[in-house]
Amino acid sequence: MDLIIRIRAEARKRKDFATADAIRDGLAGLKIALIDRPDGTGWEKRD
Prior knowledge:
Layout: H1 2-13, H2 17-29, E1 32-37, E2 40-45
Helix pairs in contact: 1-2
């Protein structure tokens, strides 16, 4: 997950929001939610 979060962060930094959104949406399909916080992005498994 750390690698995926880093890839998404780099995409967001480059303003490549299509890629960042695709990563978030793909994980949501696997019932994994990304949570953006001031100190970084976390994740949690959803039911």
